Structures
1.
Amino acid sequence: MNRPVAPLSAGDALTDTSLGFPSTFSSKPAIESGYARHVPQRRKRDTQGEGRPRRRRRKRSASAASGSTGGKDLAAARKLARKRFGIQRLHPLQAQAMEAVIAGRDTLAVLPTGYGKSLIYQVPALLADRPTIVVSPLIALMVDQEASLRRRGAPVVRIDSTLRVAERRAALARLAEGGPLIVLTTPETLESEATREAFVRAQPWLLCVDEAHCISEWGHDFRPAYLRLGVERGELGGPQVLALTATATPRVRDDIAERLGLVKPAVIAAPPDRANLRLEVELVSAATKDERAGRLIRRLPRPGIVYCATTVAAEAFGIAMERGRIPSARYHGRRTKAEREEAQKRFMRPSKKLVMSATSAFGMGIDKPNIRFVLHYQSPGSLEQYVQEAGRAGRDGKPSRCILLFDPADLDIQRHLQQRGRASAAQIRRIASALAAWAGEDRPVLAADLALSANAPVTITRATCAQLEGVGVLTRDSKKRLHLVVTKRELTIRTRDLARRVATQQREDEERLLTLDEYARTPGCRSAFLRRYFGEEKPPDCGRCDRCKLRPPRAKRNRKRPRRGEGRPSPEKSDKPRRKRRRRRKPKPPAS
Ligand SMILES: [Zn+2]
């Protein structure tokens, strides 16, 4: 496929990623010394230079040159963060990302939950002289953000499909006024005929893409609506882009950069786990899992979250907790909206120490600092998802536990879930020939009607059409009717490509599941495993996870000689004898 910008190679992303880690950051006044260096395209990996970034002449992108933030700098941003948001100190990575944005660079920030990603656009947005557009996948999330920005007196409007006519009119009028303004919207609204004009006229200086991993088909949470954001960027006049995500492997980062057309982006990434999280995995079977989960739930400090893969399991677990008189709540797709909201509200109350039994539907935008544990009763679909969900624990920096109860059979549940949401090659072919039939009669078609004629589920038809639209096969008019804009021959070729891509996705999903299995069984440090997966080259052992705790630290291990008759202890048993030894040494006989 023809891509607008030469992609970053994995190595490039890696180099900049390791720069972003706090450990290297602290040793180097990165921001002042021009941290925001370019990620040169197709450069060979430069492991030598990690500690000392080579100085490169900094070119400013067009949007920066036009002075959208009016020559403001990081000091102004810090001051504003203090005054308006009550943030006394920016996290070093927050500051790095903010500085890159203010300097006019396309920026990709990969920061786990709890790093305050939103602030990275909120502060520069208020320093700018033109509107900032923020695209996010969830309207519920936007509603919360809007409320919190309003409380702080920040100029903000939300424009999405849920607005009533008068509200929409008011929001668009505010957008037309221009000046510093945060505009929260969805990818669908951004591209809709009704609002596009207004967005284009506003000449935004920054397009912020929240949950940017949704744009990547390699990612674990692909949303077809995100595919067109690169095109939208062009139509908005090519504003600078800030892409935010909690997790992205090097490959997904490359994909984000390509699809959004990022030009030499500053990549700022934090390690996927935090120093206060203890990662643990227990291998269980269907027969032992419930008992083990029950025992953990009673013992672990609360509040906590139990994640299940299916709504059925989440419901059953919640009921079991209720029977066991454990203060709990349930959140999953089978509960009504009102029930879910009530459960979330209850869980968020600071006075309550509940255990939430939930599916992955629960958590986006949940900002409860004192979650003491995240227990996965069933395996998630990928390490990306795992890191995101487990990372909701311990945002207050206090010790918290992330436990995965791993039964290899659970991966089959994930396989089933993944199959359900994806078009098969046959479905894609049927959708394409139905499209051709409608086009043959010179009639545009709604996705729902197309689904009927293709005999495919509507969701799958929609997703397939969005992908075909992304590669220029279709366009959509203001009434959301689809028009075929290529010849039938071209359609056949593109459809074949799409089917191939879907097959690749399937393989990728399978690989992700296998990686999860590897993570569960790794004999080495779990934190290091995650960090390697997310692109770090030689991550240190954490010293906190269950694997590290089973082994004495390396230095000591080398010094200590095994006692006579004692081989190297098996990892499963080694912590007990150690504790005994220490205890034995303690009591000293009186000197007399
Ligand atoms: Zn470890």
2.
Amino acid sequence: MRVILLSGHNFVSKGCQAKLDGETINEWDLTNWLVAEVFKRERLMKVDLVAKARNDYNDLVTEVNSLNGDVLISCHFNAANGIAQGTEVLHAASSIKGKKLAGVAQNIFLKNLKLRDRGLCPTLPGERGGSILNKTKQVAILLEPFFLDSITSFEELLDLMNKTADSIVELLEYLEKNEL
Ligand SMILES: [Zn+2]
């Protein structure tokens, strides 16, 4: 089982952001931190975990497909109006296995982060996250564990980031033990 862990966004387009104690924290900083942290924490034997990030998005789908993975996990954080909070996981609308894996991920996040259940998001090719979910060969999910712009302190951010990293390790352990 090969799992590709993708850092959402890139150096050019850094995603959503939050202002904490006068400092701007953007999504790109956090997706990279998260992917590195998962590698530090995992003790997997049967999963070949591959890290992927890319500044040029043009060929991202082709590049991801060339990695011959079984599963793709794309890491993101949400943003809206600075008040909304909760967890959601996106999957390709047409993928039964993607929906199943999204459900497993969502349950792990809800148990560990204890935020509002915003449910699973079946995603069409033209929608947010749609290309990476629909055009890649892998069973693909896109994680939105919490709303970055609703975080009010570094302490809260670090707590949620730690729980998010642990949740992804838990999801990888599920993949190590179960058929999709
Ligand atoms: Zn994002």
